[in-house]
Design brief:
Structural class: alpha/beta
Largest sheet: 4 strands, parallel
Number of strands: 4
Shape: elongated
Oligomer: single chain
CATH superfamily of the largest domain: Metal-dependent hydrolases
Strand order of the largest sheet: 1-2-3-4
Distance between the termini: 31 Å
Number of helices: 11
CATH class of the largest domain: Alpha Beta
CATH topology of the largest domain: TIM Barrel
CATH architecture of the largest domain: Alpha-Beta Barrel
Number of domains: 2
Order of helices and strands: HHHHEHEHHEHHHHE
Radius of gyration: 23 Å
Length: 205
Amino acid sequence: MVASEYNNCFPCPTLQRSLRDIAALYNCRASLEELENHRKSSGLLSITAKCFGAANISAVLIDDGILFDKMCDLEWHKSFAPAVGRILRIEHLAETILNDVRIPHLLFSSILLPHKSVVADKIVAMKTIAAYRSGLQIDTEVSKADAEKGLLADLNGKYGEIICFCNFSAGRPVRIKNKSLIDFLFICSLEVATSFDLPMQVHTG
């Protein structure tokens, strides 16, 4: 559907008001087609600077733990806001490390925790998506042994094995979903957040 068809199909007051507001900002006619043409001719940098300036945004905090095909990094955003900071998604960090280093599972805690400490001075907050994957009933007494078994389960290994490379050798990325492992990572990350005086966001939707 082209812009003109969309505009004719949805003549609701909210859409029309939004078109007028954006058109006033862009200094063009209030139609979807005109707005699209203006954005294409102006370019991303110009449009972003204009919108950020009009919104009077003073800080941008970015969770870069979810990947899109046309993402701009933190440095790019620093041209448009006085303060730009990174929010670290702990499950994404753990999965990245496990997929990159190809290590025996029993060493995971000694690998993950130092990584969290290393990046802690480069972030402004930490974030967990535990609520999405295993719920909000976090087991604060979860043991390292249970977490190691949970990692084995996520690697499609068998309980009791010392080393599991089955997912690595098959080339499938590790996705953390075991509750014991998620709870353990959350508790360990809280300790890191506390030691660096960082807030922890529990994303619930």
